[in-house]
Design brief:
2 copies of one chain form a homodimer.
Chain A lengths: L3 H7 L6 H13 L4 H11 L5 H13 L3 E4 L7 E4 L5 E5 L5 E4 L4 H10 L3 E12 L1 H4 L1
Helix pairs in contact in A: 2-3
Chain A binds a DNA duplex through helix 2 and helix 4.
DNA sequence: CTGGGTGCAAAGTATTTGCATGAAC
DNA sequence: GTTCATGCAAATACTTTGCACCCAG
């Protein structure tokens, strides 16, 4: 479970119903793009504005408890930050899943061939999910 | 070396000076975002329009000889399609480098834990490049 | 010659900003 | 009471479209 209010407070954001709802939507769905978030929030807050969503998403990304995931061929989605993980995208239904794999192997083979100081490794697998394969 | 005209013809695109220049810019720089491409092309074609660039980039992406690379925290860049590779981005100067690593290890560890049929694996490393480390 | 590309201007879409009001603390 | 979030409208940024003219084949 997740206590959105505490999370918001921890990151010095005032607790408003809209913010709580954003966090809870993301927690529930795992990943959402701006439009879907907006559509869902409209149900609870018929007069919520896109501006509010953008402002809050940006604030949460800055406070580093939200993460934008840029996906190939489709809109970015946002997720609550959790342990490091990679992503699986279904190119048929658009579903995004988290997956935990060990990327240190990659980083190691990297350090042999480059002098970059690697700080982050992003891996996105695209393919067809189990449901769509049927 | 690269023969842009032949490349364009192969992909059923009429050979125009603007298109040749786009391909050559990308070949020369490896990766470019729309704005930089536009700025550079303005030197050769003072009246080239952004619309032309967008139309051509889109056409080339559709013909599958250009690839859009969506990067974290910065604008997408485009590259000519070549052998499969991963990317390194310097978060300080923005430089993008190609790097060839074996991602099959990843894909294998993947197949044990998911039923996705993986078709593509995108890896982006972010960090600080050698020059910026100095 | 003909089809398609170019550049311009306008339209569309996405995102941000300014401001008055109201809610959180 | 003060600070800051909200929602609206306007502004900005980004991308696409329609069209008249022109060039590649």
């Amino acid at each position: 479970m997740l206590n959105s209010s505490i999370l918001l407070k921890e990151y010095d954001l005032k607790v408003t119903p809209q913010r709580v709802a954003i966090v809870e939507e993301l927690y529930k769905h795992g990943h959402m793009n701006i439009d879907d978030l907006y559509k869902n929030l409209l149900k609870k807050f018929p007069s919520i504005s896109l501006a509010t969503i953008y402002k809050n998403i940006n604030a949460m990304v800055e406070k580093i408890f939200l993460n934008e995931v840029k996906l190939p061929d489709t809109k970015s989605v946002y997720e609550l930050i959790k342990e490091e993980h990679s992503h699986l995208v279904c190119s048929s239904c658009g579903k995004v899943e988290d997956i935990i794999i060990d990327t240190s192997v990659l980083q190691n083979s990297m350090s042999n061939i480059t002098n970059f100081r690697i700080e982050n490794t992003e891996v996105i697998f695209s393919g067809i999910c189990e449901d769509c394969l049927k």
